[in-house]
Give the backbone structure.
Amino acid sequence: MKKIMVSIIVFIALILFGASWHFSSELINKKGVCDPNHFIYCGDPSELGLSFEDVAFKSTDGVNISAWYIPSPSPSAKGIIMVHGHGANRNEGMRWVRTLHNAGFNLLLIDLRSHGKSSPGPISMGYHERDDVIAGVDYLAKVRKLRDIGVFGVSMGAATSIPAMAADVRIKAGVFEAGIANFKDLLADIAWRDFHIPRHPLLNLVVALFELRTGADSDEMNAEDSIKKIISRPVFIIHCENDDFIPYEHGRRIYESANEPKQFWNSPCDRHARAWQGDPKKAERLVTEFYRKNI
């Protein structure tokens, strides 16, 4: 009887470990493809009739980052860094490019580490990727000599860009779409919604393996905490009112935690990170007006 009980315990432990390893791998090894229904544009900026440069620079910890630099149509010292989500690439920001370019902004569309053409490695859901955004600020400030810099982060890109903005006062304004208020809460939301798995004990093991494999600290990956550190710099929070992946409440929590000046828009969309598709004209007007006013 004792041997049977031990065997059952070992079996359950192996199942838990295997499931946790699988779910942590989904976080750190996500490989995406360009979905035209989401990204709209899957080519390079020439698809929009815009001139651009393929550029590269090193993140603050030495990782190689690839990007497109799109100069403004007339001389300008203003720039915006476009930061994509989990498993995506620089193309995700393309739907916003034309209106921001026409408004006179230089644009830097980056591939975060482990995405697109940047160096491979584990994805840390924003923990290490924030260094890539700060490196983008360095590139615009030192190489392109820009003085006024903003950031636009989507989904994991928002979770990446909010702490980057909190850490780097050179970022003067931020737009954050479909952000993650709390990393562990999102994992719990997804586990229950998609698999009816309770938060304990599996989630704790998933997080522990994720931290071990990436060197991240999940307690420092919560946008609702990071955004409190952004003082006297405007933020604009956007979230689909029926987001099918990151619940709407995450956007509201980030907004409620933010300091003034701040604004919020719940786009009439029902797919994750598709505020532009929900109402393209209003989306472009609101975002362009925000950046024109604040950088």
Remarks:
- The mean pLDDT is 91.
- Residues 1-30+183-221 form one domain.
